[in-house]
Amino acid sequence: MSFIARRGLSTLIPPKIASPSGIGAAQDAARMERVVSFYEKLPRGRRPDEQPKGLFERYQARYFGKNPSAAPLAHVIGGLMVIGYAQHYYFHFRHHKNNAH
């Protein structure tokens, strides 16, 4: 096992909270109780999924999340068509509104 992999695993394992020399001493017992109470308060299990907050985050969660789809591609194509028609109208069609060429 490489050093990097061992280093990565060592951050997942909590530090030693009990040592043979510290069990009998009164001052270490109080310290030990604080450490144990700290680890008891930590949440267990998986972290709950966060809810998307903004418009972009909701769109990303809906179309790129657990079940990705091709809908964003259709949205881009539709948006380009709308922008293209708007430009075509502005630069060409509006001149034909009241009279022909």
Task: Write up what this structure looks like.
With 101 residues, the protein is mainly α. The chain has four helices and no strands. It has helices at 3-10, 26-41, 55-64, 71-91. It is rod-shaped, with a radius of gyration of 31 Å. The mean pLDDT is 78.
The gyration radius over C-alpha positions equals 31 Å
User: Mean of residue pLDDT?
Assistant: 78
Oligomeric organization of the protein chains: single chain
Element-by-element helix/strand order:
HHHH
Identify low-pLDDT runs: none
**Largest pleated sheet:** none
Question: Helix- and strand-based class?
Answer: mainly alpha
Helices, by number, come to 4
Distance between the termini: 79 Å
Helix share bin = 40-55%
Please summarize what this structure is:
With 101 residues, this protein is mainly alpha-helical.
Could you give the topology of this structure?
Blueprint: H1 3-10, H2 26-41, H3 55-64, H4 71-91
Features:
101 residues, 54% helix, 0% strand
